[in-house]
What we know:
Blueprint: H1 2-14, H2 27-34, E1 41-42, E2 48-49, H3 55-69, H4 85-101, H5 108-130
Antiparallel strand pairs: 1-2
Helix pairs in contact: 3-4, 3-5, 4-5
Amino acid sequence: MKMIRQELAAACCKNKIVLGSRLMQEKKQEEDFCGCEExxxxxxxxQCVMPEVTFSAFVMSLNTSALYHLGEIADPxxxxxxxxxxxxxxxxxxxxxxxxxxxxxxxxxxxxxxxNILYEIKMKFVQVAKK
Length: 131
């Protein structure tokens, strides 16, 4: 029973990736939910480890960077949200470059993830830039 609970927690933590401002959860909720500190997930043995390096994780990392620079994610050290449109644009341009350079070489789900993230982050950029 304990092993099933650990596997379920690991699967839930890995599957909490969502788009937009719902991407980041509060650290306390994450710790309660996963039993691991922020940024780590339980492995099949229940140990807290860094998530597996995958293309999707790489794309999500760039998305998180863009969201941070758009003020959607607070600085973990200060709790403050700041907007830096130049750095946000750089992260978005990097995602666009990745999309162009990987065209025809991605699995369908990876291609869809990248397409959706780019669309959503571009729309968010426009909203923030208009303020």
